[in-house]
Amino acid sequence: MYKNIWSAKQRKEMIKQAETSTFDLIIIGGGITGAGIAREAALRGLTFCLLEKHDFAFGTSSRSSKLFHGGLRYLSSGEFGLVRESTTERNWLMEHFPNLVRPLGFMFCSYEKGKDSPFKIFFAVKLYDILSNYFSRFKNYRRARIFKADFIEEFEPNVALETPELGKLKMAGFYYDTNCDDARVTVEIIKEAVARSGNNSTALNYCEVKDFNNEGSQSPAVTVRDTEGERIFTITGKVIVSAAGIFTDELLKEGRYPEEKIYPTKGVHIVVPNERLGNRNAFGIRSLDDGRFFFILRRGAVSVIGTTDTAYYPESKNLEEPWCKKEDCDYLLSTVNRLFPHARLTYDDIIGTWAGIRPLIKSEDAKNESDVSRTHEIFETPDGIVAIAGGKSTTHRRMAEDLLFHLYETGKLPEPEEKSHRKKNFSMQPFTVGITRSDFDLIVTDEHLDRHSWPGQLEYLHQQFGIQGIEILRNIQKKPKQGAPLLEGYPHCEAEILYILEHEAAPHLTDILCRRTEAQWNIWYYLQKELAEKVANIMGSYYKWPPVRKRKEIKSYLEYVKNTVAFLK
After folding, report:
1. Using CB atoms within 10 A of its CB, is residue 364 exposed (0-12), middle (13-18) or buried (19+)?
2. How far, in Å, CA of 304 to CA of 167, rounded?
3. CATH code of the domain occupying 9-61+183-261+373-422
4. pLDDT tens for each residue of 464-486
5. What's this model's pTM, rounded to 2 decimal places?
6. In the CATH scheme, what is the code of domain 265-359?
């Protein structure tokens, strides 16, 4: 259990530690790739300083499809190795992080005039099953199955049995991937990395790298600007690593790397009440307009529709805040309303949206955005900065491992003295906070922690916080009023917010509502003002904010929410 090791109140002490230490690794980028490198380093006895110029998981790592999956569609391009690698990582995460990485059933339907024939789907789901299960240490949740049309009518009664464009529904493949809260996974990985390093390492958000001092230096260093305190300071280490995701090209210009590596594509998701669609599982579907693949994802009381996959080169060059546009929403709803004809979704059904940018590696062979490979690449700048880019969130551990072994093989770091630290897959270990629901409930029952909570809250705290949810429940037991819902019908409470403030380096309101929780898109946009004011009051009391700071935080967050649904006005 983490004990007060990573609160924004300790920011000055953490910066002092960063200034006065020499780390094995300086990791630039606080998304899931940088987080994975930090954990990999900590488990293998290395120290690190992780730097993020915004908040942790600010970019792609909080705006993905929130899936850990193998990528069934990558089979059509022959990327069997990527699928095998991804499903192996997925199964490991599902076993050792069971509260946050949860099985999700997927339907992939075949219609008589559709692009995907019954044979193609049968072959795809069976091959997917084989690649992800056979000769694997970590197994699939359940085996893939094939459903006939008459069974689908009972199993998923709201999906169209016939459409003018596709004709009659013939069959469907059914398989399992997993869903998650991508931002929370990232934050938990960083927390674990800091804890497992014995607090000899640190992670700093809102710290922007401004300059490198790496070439020919015995002690490579970075000049950093603390955007919270407006201080400039220097951090030294043995190796500088870039895991900057979509900001890779921008960062490496400072390291005199001439080539642009990143091919940014925008992905948009819209959120609607599940009762409007009525899907019991997730669906992998193709757009009826251009044939591109996207998902309908069941996530409790809501369904998430997305992602789009379009090249992203905004005139402003702003990679930080992509938004869902009217054309993105119309594109997704057009197909969904034809495949789920009873839904008749309109803009009035949209709870919220989010948009993100994938940091794919440029490829001259790709014919369109969907064809760009999700493999990763490691390369070095003339200044000696080691960079990793591309890949998928699912394979973050494997990417981190590949990077560390690259550092060993090139002599940038000495090989570990401990034999186990030299082994591949050494980091496929359980997560400290991971716990099954049955084990969680045993603790709750033994300590009578359900007396001041309700079933929906228990489910939420287990899912989002794992074993840490027990500590939140203990705090509620001591102060029952802190367990009351901040908004009726939603599980967020004061005790949760206080726990985040104490343990998760969240100095801003947006950090909590966009990345430490899923409140930004999981709660109706017209309720966000009430929620923001209540959470800001808790934060204001905790951080002793003056009224002007509290108003600024609320205004900034509501402006963000407004931009996510601007097309609705």
Report:
1. exposed
2. 26
3. 3.50.50.60
4. 999 999 999 999 999 999 999 99
5. 0.95
6. 3.30.9.10
